[in-house]
Design brief:
The structure holds two protein chains of two kinds. By secondary structure, chain A is α/β, with parallel strands linked by helices. Chain A has 18 helices and ten strands. Helix content of chain B is about 30%, strand content about 20%. The chains are: A alpha/beta, B alpha+beta.
Chain lengths: ~475, ~180
């Protein structure tokens, strides 16, 4: 299967052994950017291993009910609990009221696309899924259970999730390679009456669209007349393309470009795509190259927007391509760990707005801005599904909050520091679920907001309490090559 | 030289299901050969996706040219160029290649075998394929076929569904192994 890699897939950045000293701060040019980033990533990796060995896991189950004496177990467990079991047998939906199902999701992966590292298998996926579970809890107040599974086909992923679904109020698919992730998501969405989400597609796409909507406002554009080029046709960009079309983007002004050039209906590999990646095939037909053929250089000429989610840069997107774009071009270079072009270089070439996937540049497009609010929202509304409208509602809510703080070329999106925004995203999502008639719980926006605020704040308070009381063991000093003196 | 009964006609008005992307069928000519070769090669490359025993040989293009040249002279062969209309007028967007064969032991005695049928992707949905198949069936029937068959890779689920919907069912199977 030949196709452009999603960000940080398959083509990890060439390893450089220059060993730049770990430092933070904004890389301003090519070499500085690379050296500091390489060095910093290495140092963080070493520290992560140290801490993984020390803490041996990042989440644990903790009782949430009082246990005054062992007698209480006759309420929490047998014989008392039999009545609860019978009640759920009589009305399965009551599991959402009588157990933790309402707030519990599974993080399911087959380990086939772990970060930028490729197919490392389910065991190696566990630390990443534990980390994701930590984010889900800390940012979204959601109890998330890491479930890496050993499977040999996409059908087996679907089968496995169908079988474990009774325990969960939602499913987050994670780090599953493209194109099977499309099949798995579509199939589970059709077959399960709970929200199913694939963060690498929907989370990234929603964050991208949120940033783009504000970039359009900043540069005085509207989506209906936009010419957009998407570089990379992996999970994220295919989902982004679908969202843009749902927002009213003209398909014939939208060009998807991968390693083989502009994706159009008569490209040589289109029949192969029909068989192996029907999602990409459909976009090949509906966009038909956005009226262009050839290479990225051909597609990007006079384009308003370039959304790159392809392979790590910094020389994947050339400055002259940006110079050939329309006035005040918008450039998103989202590959990790290194954007397709350094923001400073893109700016010099005329880009009016630049976003990347990194927190050390302005305008980080980060799916962590989206998924906590989405899951808080769909769980609180007890939604049956997460249709495209919900993804767009989350994107619009996020964009709206950045506008409230004041939009500049360096502030397109809230940063990860601005966690107070998340409950608003959650409430927007929950309210939209009610409007669409897919909510099992009907409340007003302000009720959803109050609930989300409380549920999203609690984990940080609990964590703080546990740290202060030292029930969470204090962070050990870094070992490193130059041990610090105590 | 050209198969009879396949004069160019404006079918689209009689077939509302092709309204989205109308096409019309006409007998192929010598001048069509380069385009038809490229369409046939696309089809063979698609077949390649379904089974390693359908790997396209390096000289497939030359072979396609030869077989088209010979079919165009063969009275029991049918080669149809599918042409676009409207903005795509005059553009060949698909090909059909079929033979009339005698069935030695069975009746009906004349079989119209659809060997190749290919439409460019943008001309696939909207009932175009259905229309092309119906027209091809009509042309084969005019030439005496009492049964129409179609050959395609058994793993091609899209083709299986397409033909099944139009009343086709498997009657013989071709099983293969490499030796």
């Amino acid at each position: 299967m030949v196709q452009a890699s999603p960000p940080d897939a398959e083509n990890p950045a060439p390893s450089r052994r220059k060993g730049g000293s770990p430092r933070s701060g904004r890389p301003t040019d090519d070499s500085a950017g690379n050296d500091s980033e390489e060095g910093r990533t290495k140092a963080l990796g070493e520290r992560s291993i140290e801490l993984a060995r020390y803490y041996r896991g990042k989440i644990e189950t903790v009782p949430k009910v009082p246990v005054r004496s062992l007698d209480d177990f006759s309420l929490w467990y047998t014989p008392g609990i039999a009545a609860v079991s019978r009640a759920i047998h009589a009305d399965p939906a009551s599991a959402f009221d009588l157990t933790g199902r309402w707030n519990t999701i599974a993080i399911v992966t087959d380990g086939s696309r772990i970060l930028g590292l490729g197919d490392l298998g389910p065991e190696a996926a566990l630390p990443v899924m534990e980390g994701k579970a930590l984010l889900f809890k800390y940012l979204g107040g959601v109890d998330a259970i890491p479930i890496p599974i050993r499977v040999s086909s996409p059908e087996e992923i679907v089968e496995t999730v169908l079988r474990i679904a009774p325990a969960f109020g939602g499913i987050n698919l994670e780090d599953i390679s493209s194109p099977k992730c499309f099949y798995v998501l579509e199939e589970l969405q059709a077959r399960l009456p709970i929200p199913i989400w694939h963060d690498d597609q929907l989370g990234t796409a929603a964050a991208t669209v949120a940033g783009l909507l504000n970039a359009l406002t900043l540069t005085g554009r509207s989506i209906g007349t936009l010419r957009t080029v998407l570089l990379g046709a992996g999970a994220a960009n295919l989902a982004t393309a679908r969202l843009l079309l749902a927002l009213g983007h003209d398909p014939h002004r939208l060009s998807l470009v991968d390693q083989k050039g502009v994706l159009h209906a008569e490209r040589d590999d289109v029949d192969e795509l029909m068989v192996r990646n029907r999602w990409k095939y459909r976009l090949a037909l509906s966009t038909d190259g956005g009226g262009r053929k050839g290479s990225l250089a051909d597609a990007v000429r006079e384009a308003d927007v370039l959304l790159a989610a392809s392979t790590p840069g910094p020389h994947v997107v050339k400055p002259e391509w940006i110079r050939s774009m329309a006035r005040d071009p918008i450039v998103f270079a989202l590959a990790n760990p290194t954007p397709e072009i350094w923001p400073s270089v893109a700016r010099e070439a005329g880009a009016a707005v630049v976003a990347t996937g990194r927190s050390d540049f302005p305008n980080q497009v980060n799916n962590s801005l989206i998924f906590p609010g989405v899951f808080r929202g769909v769980l609180d509304a007890r939604a049956k599904s997460i249709p495209e409208e919900i993804v767009l509602a989350a994107a619009k809510a996020l964009a709206g909050h950045a506008r409230e703080r004041g939009l500049t070329a360096d502030h397109l999106l809230p940063t990860m520091e601005e966690t107070h925004v998340f409950p608003y995203v959650a409430a927007a999502v929950a309210s939209r679920c009610v409007e669409l008639g897919i909510a099992g719980v009907r409340k007003s926006n302000s009720e959803f907001l109050a609930e989300a605020k409380e549920r999203m704040a609690r984990p940080a308070e609990v964590a703080e309490l546990l740290m202060r009381s030292k029930f969470t063991r204090p962070m050990p000093e870094a070992a490193g090559k130059e041990p610090r003196k105590r | 030289m050209n198969p009879k009964g396949s004069e160019p006609r404006g079918h689209e008005t009689q077939h509302p299901e092709t309204a989205g992307a109308p096409v019309h069928l006409r007998p192929a000519e010598g001048a069509d050969v380069p385009t038809l070769v490229s369409l046939l090669i696309r089809l063979k490359r698609l077949n390649e996706e379904f089974d390693p025993l359908l790997k396209v040989r390096p000289d497939a293009e030359a072979k396609a040219k030869e077989v088209l040249a010979s079919d165009l002279k063969n009275p029991s062969a049918l080669v149809v160029a599918v042409e676009g209309t409207g903005v795509d007028a005059g553009k060949v967007v698909g090909v059909v290649r079929a033979h009339i064969r005698e069935r030695l032991f069975y009746t009906p005695e004349q079989e119209g075998v659809i060997l190749d049928i290919y439409l460019l992707p943008l001309f696939r949905r909207k009932g175009v394929g259905e229309y092309v198949l119906a027209e091809t069936t009509r042309l084969l029937k005019e030439r005496g076929a009492g049964i129409v068959t179609a050959e395609f890779p058994v793993q091609n689920a899209i083709a299986v569904r397409f033909y099944a919907k139009r009343g086709f069912r498997p009657i013989t199977a071709l099983h293969a192994r490499s030796v």
